[in-house]
Amino acid sequence: MVKALASARRHRFAPVVLMLFALLAVGGIYAVAAPQAAVADSASQDDVTEGEKLFQANCASCHGPSAEGRTDVAPSLIGVGAASVHFQVSTGRMPMAANAPQAPEKGVQFSTEQTAQLAAYVASLAPGPAIPDGEQVDPALGDAANGMLVFRTNCAMCHNAVGAGGALSEGKYAPSLFNSTPTEIYEAMLTGPQSMPVFNDENITPEAKRDVIAYLMEQRADDSSPGGANLGAIGPVSEGMWVWIIGMGALIGASVWIGAKSS
Amino acid sequence: MSDLTKSEHVTPPGASDPLSVGERELDRFPNPGLPEHKHRLSDESEAGSKRVERQIVILFVLSLLASIGGVVGYFAFPVGVTLGSVQASTLSIGLGLGVGMLGIGIAAVHWAKALMSDVEQVDERHAQRSDDATRAAAVQALKDGADDSRIARRPVLKGALVSAVAVAPLAFVVPLVGNLGGDWNVSKFRYTMWGPGVRLARDPDGGLIRPEQVTIGSVWHVIPDGLLGSEHMLEEKAKAVVLMVRMNPTELTEAPERADWSWDGIVAYSKVCTHVGCPVALYEQQTHHLLCPCHQSTFDVSDGAKVVFGPAKRALPQLPITVDDEGYLVARSDFTEMVGPSTWERERYTDLPVSDEEKAH
Q: Is A223 on the interface with B (CB under 8 A)?
């Protein structure tokens, strides 16, 4: 038998047979192990199951095996909803890299599909805010003027008048909103991540939330700073730097030039 | 002055060297005098002077063109409704003015430095004190004048003169000070629009609030119902703004006398900082700390809004709230103390029972 195989090895059809076997094997493995096409809109039972596996592998060490949270380590995730999971995971804030006053935005750890599976799992634990759909966050449908009123009252004290961000206490900060997607902005208002309070739909209605998004998107337009360079729009810090270093430097230079002898 | 300074130098007895030991330490370096006069390029050749003249003319022409450009810009870019037209208008007028002025200034300085006479001159300072004879003459002239007016012997005249001079400035000092505040009724800072039964409304749109809408962890910026469209709206809003949060009742520490000032974990506090009156509104949901953006005063909302950090000295005044028959959140009364920064009248208006008559006042 072994001899027969050994001689067949040199048969001129051997490479073809081997190739067929290899193709079959790859195809079979792919059929079993390939990831399912992402279903973002409706979470299936498969998503919940896959999400639970991901949760157990990546999140349970802090948030507990049933997402019930651990005292002084991590909050319970029961009832936080899919919106909260999508916000935290799709911006890279979770999983947290180190124990710190604030989980910073960083490289995203999970694919879009895995994020959706995690969100589906956490949403299956208890009802909570869902991920907003495209129409809810479409800035073109919002009223930027009303958005400014709402933003000025509720958001500007921490996030700066145009959303450039600002400092809080003890190393915490309100991040800049210049690179946040409309969905992330909506989810943050709805779920109140970290230090941020919750702005539920009774406080800021879904329409007003969309207005806020429209206002923030308008701040990113090319002509949003008619006064010239906005210097990061962070107010007196960068403007003062400019005045003291560039402005005063030019004045000192001019004084030296006036006092110097002509050559 | 140099002569005077030299005459003060004391030569110790017996020292043959004019520079004494003490002076030698101070004057280790000989006075280098003025540096040797060096002529400028424009002094040394006609071509150099022509070149400088050309530079100055170019600067003046640049200024001229910029000024004309500014005027042209004013007509070319009318300020329309779009931000772009405002930008073009201000930019062209500003550049015209700026370069126009700067060109004249640089040209004038360059002219003075490079073309005008560069002869160095030394002007010694003279002593500030007049000589004795001049001083005596000045004093005598004043005395003669006083004697001539006989003011010492005419006390009524003297009194009239002093009174007239003293009273004259009142004609502009009194209106000046009187117009400063316009209104000296400080007690109005004691009262806000809040009162028994005044409903809490959402800032900025004025929607009424039910307690079940205020979920745990959320923060509401609140104004009194009826504020929108009222007379003196901004003044009243500045006094009456309130921040309302709901937290788990187990996390809330309440003074026994204020036990009925909250509603099921919902507490409302004045948003006006007790330090210098900035709006305190940076609420950190996890720590329940409320941070003032101006000077970082931090208040603990879970514990009577007491000060935990920063320059503020007093806790934020709490607005007592309850729920009315129709299920809306309402104030139980006005604040029981003055909101905002301390004033010297504050004590007079603190912890007094608030009657409607007082409020009407």
A: yes
Smallest Cβ–Cβ distance between B220 and the set A157, A192, A203 belongs to: A203
| CB-based contacts of B112, cutoff 8 Å, min separation 6 | none
Q: Is the pTM of this model over 0.90?
A: no
Residues B143 and B46 in one domain: no
Kindly report the nearest CA distance between residue A227 and chain B, in angstroms.
Answer: 7
The Cα of B221 is separated from the nearest Cα of chain A by a number of Å equal to 7
- Confirm whether residue A159 is marked as ligand binding: yes
Cβ(A257)–Cβ(B35) below 8 Å: no
Work out how many domains chain B is built from and give that number: 3
ipTM for the predicted complex: 0.75
Question: B327 lies in a domain?
Answer: yes
A258 with B109: Cβ contact below 8 A? yes
Q: pLDDT tens for residues A137-180?
A: 999 999 999 999 999 999 999 999 999 998 888 889 999 999 99
From A257's Cα to the closest Cα of chain B, the distance in A is 9
Q: CA-based Rg of chain B, rounded to a whole angstrom?
A: 38
Q: CATH number of the domain at B300, please.
A: 2.102.10.10
pLDDT tens digit string along A207-255?
999 999 999 999 888 777 777 788 888 888 889 999 999 999 999 999 9
Task: Please tell me which of the candidates A150, A166, A168 has its beta carbon nearest to residue B284.
Answer: A168
Q: Cα B177 to the chain's mean position, in Å?
A: 19
**Same domain, yes or no: B124 and B142:** no
Task: Check whether residue B17 and residue B103 sit in a common domain.
Answer: yes
Q: Is residue B169 part of a domain?
A: yes
Across the interface, do B284 and A169 touch by the CB < 8 Å criterion?
A: yes
User: Does residue B229 lie in a domain region?
Assistant: yes
Domain interval for residue B75: 1-29+38-128
Which sign, positive or negative, has the C-alpha torsion A28, A29, A33, A37? negative
What are the structure tokens assigned to A59, written together? 């999140």
In a domain, B187, yes or no: no
Same domain, B168 and B94: no
